[in-house]
TrEMBL record:
<keyword id="KW-0057">Aromatic amino acid biosynthesis</keyword>
<dbReference type="InterPro" id="IPR001240">
    <property type="entry name" value="PRAI_dom"/>
</dbReference>
<dbReference type="GO" id="GO:0004640">
    <property type="term" value="F:phosphoribosylanthranilate isomerase activity"/>
</dbReference>
<feature type="domain" description="N-(5'phosphoribosyl) anthranilate isomerase (PRAI)">
    <location>
        <begin position="5"/>
        <end position="207"/>
    </location>
</feature>
<keyword id="KW-0028">Amino-acid biosynthesis</keyword>
<comment type="similarity">
    <text>Belongs to the TrpF family.</text>
</comment>
<dbReference type="Pfam" id="PF00697">
    <property type="entry name" value="PRAI"/>
</dbReference>
<protein>
    <recommendedName>
        <fullName>N-(5'-phosphoribosyl)anthranilate isomerase</fullName>
        <ecNumber>5.3.1.24</ecNumber>
    </recommendedName>
</protein>
<keyword id="KW-0413">Isomerase</keyword>
<dbReference type="InterPro" id="IPR013785">
    <property type="entry name" value="Aldolase_TIM"/>
</dbReference>
<keyword id="KW-0822">Tryptophan biosynthesis</keyword>
<dbReference type="InterPro" id="IPR044643">
    <property type="entry name" value="TrpF_fam"/>
</dbReference>
<comment type="pathway">
    <text>Amino-acid biosynthesis; L-tryptophan biosynthesis; L-tryptophan from chorismate: step 3/5.</text>
</comment>
<dbReference type="GO" id="GO:0000162">
    <property type="term" value="P:L-tryptophan biosynthetic process"/>
</dbReference>
<dbReference type="InterPro" id="IPR011060">
    <property type="entry name" value="RibuloseP-bd_barrel"/>
</dbReference>
Amino acid sequence: MQVKVKICGLTRTEDMQACAATGVHWVGLVFHPASPRFVTPEQAARLHNAIPTADKGGPLRVGLFVKPTFEQVAATLNQVPLDILQLYTDEKTALTLKHQTNKKVWLARGVARTEDLPSDTSFDGYIIEAPSQKGDTRPGGLGRTFNWTLTEHWHAPAPWLLAGGLTPDNVAQAVRVSKTRAVDVSSGVEERPGIKSALLIEKFIKNSQKGACVHQE
Ligand SMILES: O=C(O)c1ccccc1N[C@@H]1O[C@H](COP(=O)(O)O)[C@@H](O)[C@H]1O
């Protein structure tokens, strides 16, 4: 797989198994109570146990937290051995959590202009997505796209994933325009919030690779 894929917001064992079977690089578990994809640490542990770990060829586990405290992250890590923390918080808190937990940290950043693109090399990766809007009930998972040309000439300080409103129908174009090497999707491969479709996951992965072929020629 040339373009790496993360499927986020998994709540069911069968969806974890579909991700593992299709060879996605990362699966995301949402620990934000306001999300329709929220899972408790106990539910996450069951999902984690349903598929091979990364050292046995399974996907890496990414835990998504919105403005978390150290206590919330530590209590979650006690139940489920996450590989990466995807954080919606400020840089200082994220860096402190990285040192406290000794985990890889990806920062999520909404981008409206090139000036919003991060330059800090302290993090292990970035999720680059649509900026929040007034009235949003959560900072992501809303199926909203942004101007993909913004990242076209960006010299990223760390590996990054393009996110926000990606679907099997637009992912090839998104990869082509943004020049990303990795994509992240939640709502675009769902039958309804939290319920993934194995068929849409398969289509999404296949189409994401089509975008890569064009810009690598
Ligand atoms: O998925 C959620 O419910 C969610 C809640 C809070 C913050 C982020 C969330 N999801 C992340 O948002 C992006 C884009 O999602 P979508 O494909 O537009 O639905 C992705 O990184 C999800 O992991």
